[in-house]
Amino acid sequence: MKDSGPSGPQWLRWVKRLQAIAQDGLTYSEDDYDLGRYEQLRELASEMLAAHSTGTLEEARDLLALETAPATPKVDVRAVVFKDDRILLVKEPNEAGWSVPGGWADVGESPSEAAARETLEESGYRVRPVRLLAAHDRDRHGHPPMTYHVYKLVYLCEILDDEPLSDVDSDGASFFEGKEIPELSVTRVTRSQISRFFEQYSDPTLSTDFD
User: Fold this and answer.
1) Using one digit for the tens of pLDDT, what is the confidence trace for 33-64?
2) pTM for this structure?
């Protein structure tokens, strides 16, 4: 049996599935016996996660216990911003590489609003989303595996400011030409995705990428 695939190692896929079953069961079940079984299932997922990762069992339990209500994918939003044919990249704190601005969408805001907010917070630039470039299943696009199942929504945004605000939540923000892209934070964006964003920016007739 193969140990890895497009969505990460086999053990991590099992952990995600066990956690989702346990999470749904703990959300919908009203029978004490069933609730106990689902708690055991989540404990098994925690033990598997701890056994195959660098974290402790307690850390694994705490991580999985954060997931409540029905199990659904998380939504990561990203903004692609160009200026003079150069792409905006930010360097988040404690990250070795750069990324397009973005992060988790918040409850109560639309995905495009989240993309604009994250760009302002991380780069200081106000932007206006104008086009959806991609709706990706994170597991299928070369990112390192993670515990959560994530959908990534990427918006092309128009820049509204000549100069950015000075107060930002990042260690740097700069525009780069396609031939000078620095080391990337592949947890957030890959080099092939950056190349595709340049293509979509240059040719507005290209369709939105999905899955």
Assistant:
1) 888 887 888 788 888 888 887 778 787 777 77
2) 0.71
